[in-house]
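Running this now, will post back.
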Amino acid sequence: MRAQARISEQPVAGDIGPELNIKASHALVELACMILAVELIEWAVPLAGNNAKAYGGLALVIALLMAVCFLRDGLGPKRLGIRMDNFLPALGDLLPFLMVFVLAMVSIGLVFGSIRLGDRFWSMLAVVPPWALLQQYMLLAFANHRFRVLFGGGEGATIATAALFAALHLPNPALTVVCGLGGYIWASEYAIRPNLFANALTHTVASAFLANTLPHSLLRNMVVGYNHFFR
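Update: finished.
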C-alpha cells in the first residue's frame, strides 16, 4: 500500500500554500551545494583527521545556505512546516507507520535478544529531537521544495526526496533502507500537511528504537560516511 494513499487522498485545504518560484537551474545548483557540503562532512573531513574547524566551516556553509534561501524564497514558516496548527492531524497520520515500525524493531529485538531500552534509549529521546528537526528542515523545507520545482511536485518529488535521504545515509545498510522508507512517508505527509515538528517527533522515536533494538549483525552503528567503517 502506498504511503501517499494511506495518509490521505487529497491535500487538506488551508495547509498547502504557494509553491517555490525559482528557476529549475537555481534549484538544482542549491541542491547540489547542500549535498556536496553534507558529503564532504561525511567523507572528506574524516579522511582529514576529523578536523573540528573543517566540520564547523562546512556546517556554517550549510547554515548560511539555509538562511539565505529562506529569506529569498519568501515561503514563510507556515508553508515550510514550522507551525503547530496542524500538528495533531499530521502526527495522527504518521502514528500508524511509527507503531508498525516500533513493533517490527521490538519483534526483531526479542528474536535476537538485543533489546536495550536503558539509559541510551532515554537519552536519545531527550537529545535527538533538535537533530531530527534539523534533518527534517533540510530534507523537506529545503530539498523537497526544490525537487518540486524540478519534478513539478507530486510523486516524483516525493520519491526524489526519499532517495536523497537514503543516499545521505550510505554506506550504513540498515540506515539507508530505513531512511529511504521513512523519507518517503515523511515527504508524502509533508505534501499534504507540512509539519516539521510531527515529523521530527516520529523521527526521534524511530531512531531511538532502531538504535536500541537491532542486533550488531543488522545495525553495526548509527554512523554514516567514512567513519561508519571504523565505529
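DSSP finds nine helices and no strands in the chain. More later if anyone needs it.
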